[in-house]
Amino acid sequence: MLALFMAMSGTVYAAKSAKISGKAIKVKSLPGNRLKPKSVTANRLAPGVLASLPSAAAGAPGVVTGLEIDELSLGQVPEAAHADTADFAKNATSADTALNAVNAVNASKVNGYEAGCLPGTELFASACWQTSASVTPVPAPAAAQSCAAQGGELPEALSLAAYSQQATLDLGSEWTSDITSYTSPDVYSTATVSPAGVVGSSLQTFSRNYRCVFPLLR
Fold this sequence. Notes:
- The chain is of the alpha+beta class.
- It is 17% helix and 17% strand.
- It is built from 4 helices and 8 strands, in the order ααββββααββββ.
- It has helices spanning 2-17, 95-98, 140-149, 157-163; strands at 109-110, 113-114, 121-124, 127-130, 174-184, 187-193, 199-203, 213-215.
- The strands form 3 sheets. Strands 3-4-8 form a 3-stranded antiparallel beta sheet, with no helix packed on it. A 3-stranded antiparallel beta sheet has the order 5-6-7. Strands 1-2 form a two-stranded antiparallel ribbon.
- β5 and β6 form a beta hairpin.
- The radius of gyration is 44 Å and the shape is rod-shaped.
- Residues 92-99 have low confidence and may be disordered.
């Protein structure tokens, strides 16, 4: 009995203390559900084994979801190189122009239009005013046509009166675009402004000097 007991105890002890190596496991003898989760790394899998898995719903066995992906290991998305500066872009029509949107205050063009005043004009009341009046006095309709041909227009009476406070109307009263009275077809009076900034009126057939006002964008 003693010999039998000693023999059995030695077998149990040997079974508990012995370690099973991979060489002792028969190939394909262990099913996947007997492996501890995350115990097998990707570099231990055969090439192409993940790609060959059948499609399944997210979270199903064999499907890689976002939870298993380390975002830091991914490269930058194509065409997103300038996304870091997109916070500064306002009303940008495309991502190509977003990078330069921060410097829009210094842009020389807006939607393809030139911005600024041409030589011989100066900025006043958000428009470009001719710094000198016409040399030759003409009737009001001719003055309006001349300004239109240059891409501008006659100033309004009150605007010209305000402009006269910072510039000298050297050649006397000038035409404005305001009609003060109407008598009959082609018989009317147009407002004028004197060098002192006084608003007056004159028949459109009289000859006066004039200056044109142009938009800031052209």
